[in-house]
Amino acid sequence: MDPAMGMGLVALMGAAATVAGCSEDLESDIGSQSNPNSQVQLAAQVGYPHRIFNKAISGEPPSNAMYCAVGAGVAMVLMSESVMSASPLIAIAIGAFVAALLNGVFATTSYMGRSASQTRFNQYVYMDVLRNQILSLMGHAYITTFCIVLLSYVMWNQHLINHPFPFPVIALIWGLCVGAIGSSTGDVHYGAEREFQDFKFGAGLNAADSGNITRYAEAGIRSSLDNAWFCSKFGGPATGIAFGMVVFLDNWRSTAFAEVLNGWGAVLVGLAIVILLVIYNRQIETYARKKYGPYPEYAGDIEA
Amino acid sequence: MSAGGPGGEAVSAETANQVDIKGIGVGLVGIYIAGISGIPYLAFLAGIGAIFATKMGADAVRRVCSYGIGTGVPSIGMLALGMGIISAMFGLALGKMYNAVFIGPIVGLVLALVIGFVVGTLANKIIKLNIPVMERCLMEIAGAGVLALTGLSVMIAGSMDFVVISEKVITTGYIAPVFILGALGILHPFNASLGPDETQDRTLVHAYSCGAIAMVIGGLCSIAVIDSIAGMISIVVGLVIWYVTFMGFVKLVKRDAGAGYVGTGLLPPGAM
Predict the structure, then answer these.
(1) CA pair distance B258, A124, nearest whole angstrom
(2) Domain residue spans in chain B?
(3) In principle, which of A79, A84, A243, B10 could form an S-S bond with A21, CB 3.0–4.6 Å?
(4) B88 Cα to chain A: minimum distance (Å)
């Protein structure tokens, strides 16, 4: 392939991945999936019944893998010659729509099921919470699935990157990946930062504070859409950049250095990227500890 | 108290033996009719078998996770299909090797039960989780995984022949949605009902509806693999089962939530 064309495809995939990462994180924040979910789930038990969407579709990596695998599977059916040889863009759009419908069904059952399973703690099942949130969830899931299935298609298509794995399997793997990154990057912003921004650095977390995550927002009782508003300022974009970088750097090294040293060039560049990122992360961590810690009560190393 | 419930043995109206007999019985019968008859229009029966197998797995997840495995629920579902896919493919390949296609699902099931027993024993004796139902539940989960995976694969391919399945389901990649929907069908019903007031009938009706979703998507894939009529039959049957069980789930949510099922409203008195 022409190198310029290859770089263009890599850039397109990176851009699609950035959008997907951002929308994936916001989707999970609206539904309080993953990191904050245990706090929302515990809230009623520690005396704080709430009006927050409790979407537990197994944890983000498998649920996003499901949307993306289904989206790619449906797109592949539509594109196959024995069915209708649909154009890829339309097929991917329809596939993502089917995946968004599944997201709606699974989100509905988990909200209703989990709330009804906490009746003894006075937790109500609010239909308006379901109705208000479900379309934003499905909309974000649609964007995520569309972008991931699109980048998987670019990877799989034999005229483009020509990856040897089947299309739905590539989408499954990228779905797992975006879920894992959303869960570890963006959700921390909602699950920890949103609730504990007034706590002292390194103060630790008392389990009894868990329910606070469902209490007050900037105005009135907190709702799931407030969380999306809050997280769209930092958590969502950070997830997008993280996932976009994963997709971009990975494809960049394997496209640009494929010919170097008989393919080993790409491996070495990958290794170098990982080592650089590890050093950079360590730098940030020690910088933050020095700048913001230790918290006032801290008096040197305490023997266990 | 665990996030998953009071901890200890789960309360059941339908006993484990009843669920297992239905799951394995209907599962195998469905797979065999669809696989051996050679009539593509009967392929949907394998999907119905997969639904019952999914329910069996969901019930096993429910029983083992009621011992307080909160965040481990999704992991157990993925473990089920991990064990399931190895056993299913081994069984079908062995059947092909000995030119006896019909032994495939049974060999797969037996192998899954053995793997499940070994994993359960490891978890209980070596890692010392000490959950009394662990071995049995992991055997059921692995069995459910293999039946759900074989059922959906046979439904998509319309055949029990390993060559056909590997060419039409695995190489094309349709195995990806089948794998993940099968896993979610087993883990999602209990995970979505996690809490002390979880009830067995609600969880199991939800398992039927998750299995039906997998059947609908499998039917969609089989349009490209077998033909459009066989695929449409699977989709329509799956949609009907999904609608009925989903409405049943909503009804049971209303029953369990009681006065707490409200259109809108403030937080309950004393909550602020």
Answers:
(1) 9
(2) 16-256
(3) A243
(4) 18
